[in-house]
Each structure stands twice: as C-alpha cells, then as structure tokens.
Design a protein that fits this description.
Layout (H helix, E strand, L loop, with lengths): L2 E6 L8 H6 L4 E6 L8 E5 L5 E2 L1 H6 L4 E5 L1
Antiparallel strand pairs: 1-2, 3-4, 3-5
Length: 69
C-alpha cells in the first residue's frame, strides 16, 4: 500500500504535517511504497536526504540509500 511522506524541499529531510501546513512552498509530499507505480531507482545521501548521482552512490555505498520514485 502506498504511503505519503513529506520532505523539506531545501534539505530533503522528512518533515511533519504541521511543517507542511506552515511552509507549503518549501515542502514536498511524495508517494512511496508499493502501489505507487514508482519504477525509477534514485540515490539519496543518508545524512542530508538530498539526491545524489549514481556515481556518488557507488563511491559511498554506506552513506547513501536507494529508493524507487
């Protein structure tokens, strides 16, 4: 089942629904999990939550996470 998560647009970190209500222009809501039709794999920095290139993820596998978007 798909789940919605909220992120800060600047940092990429997860934020609460209250933060989204206060700063709608500075946050993004995305669907994650099965049932979302997410078919593309992307890499994120584990410390910042920002997207990183595949080359960066390959160089630093312990500091990155892969997810479907």
């Amino acid at each position: 089942m798909a789940k919605s998560v909220n992120r800060s647009a600047s940092s990429g970190r997860f934020v609460s629904k209250a933060t989204v209500a206060r700063w709608p222009g500075k946050t993004t809501t995305e669907g994650v999990g099965s049932g979302t039709g997410n078919s593309r794999t992307v890499a994120r920095s584990a410390s910042t939550g920002k997207f990183v290139t595949k080359a960066t993820a390959k160089r630093n596998p312990g500091g990155t996470v892969e997810q479907q978007v």
